[in-house]
């Protein structure tokens, strides 16, 4: 599990494989290769704390992840939550929710 702290009151717990899948999707959609560096940092450290990053860097990363999540949800639709894709969509919705836990 990774703990991605998006803001002071937004913590997104996500399985490492699902986070990697989201990063892969973002990269496939044209996100800068720098995103792969942040994936490696998150996986090596058990997560990321965007609240400790430069504000512009944190905002960029939040935007890239949220945009990729929105695209992935639109692409996958409403899969059965008990399937691999369904679990992924549930995790993405947690990323996009106003309060992330």
List strands and helices in order, with pairings.
Layout: E1 2-7, E2 10-14, H1 16-28, H2 34-45, E3 47-49, H3 55-76, H4 84-96
Parallel strand pairs: 1-3
Antiparallel strand pairs: 1-2
Helix pairs in contact: 1-2, 1-3, 3-4
Write a short abstract of this structure.
The chain has helices at 16-28, 34-45, 55-76, 84-96; strands at residues 2-7, 10-14, 47-49. It is an alpha+beta fold and 101 residues long.
Task: Enumerate the spans where pLDDT stays under 50 for 5 or more consecutive residues.
Answer: none
Oligomer: single chain
Q: What's the main sheet like? A: 3 strands, mixed
Query: What order do the strands of the largest sheet run in, or round the barrel if closed?
Result: 2-1-3
Number of domains: 1
Let me know the number of strands: 3
Global morphology: globular
Distance between the termini: 13 Å
Give the rounded overall mean pLDDT. Answer: 93
- Structural category is alpha+beta
Radius of gyration: 13 Å
- Helix content estimate: 55-70%
Number of helical runs? 4
Note the beta-strand portion.
5-15%
Describe the structure.
With 101 residues, the chain is α+β, with helices and mostly antiparallel strands. The chain has one domain. Helix content is 59%, strand content 14%. The chain is built from four helices and three strands, in the order E-E-H-H-E-H-H. It has a three-stranded mixed β-sheet. The longest helix is centred in the middle third of the chain and has 22 residues. It is globular, with a radius of gyration of 13 Å. The model has no long low-confidence stretch (mean pLDDT 93).
């Amino acid at each position: 599990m990774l703990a991605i702290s998006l803001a002071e009151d937004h913590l997104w717990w996500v399985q490492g494989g699902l986070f990697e899948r989201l990063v892969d999707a973002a990269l496939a959609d044209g996100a800068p290769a720098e995103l792969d560096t942040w994936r490696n940092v998150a996986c090596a450290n058990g997560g990321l704390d965007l609240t400790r990053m430069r504000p512009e860097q944190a905002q960029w990363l939040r935007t890239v992840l949220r945009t990729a999540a929105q695209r992935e949800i639109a692409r996958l639709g409403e899969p059965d939550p008990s399937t691999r894709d369904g679990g992924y969509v549930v995790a993405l919705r947690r990323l996009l929710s106003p309060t992330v836990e």
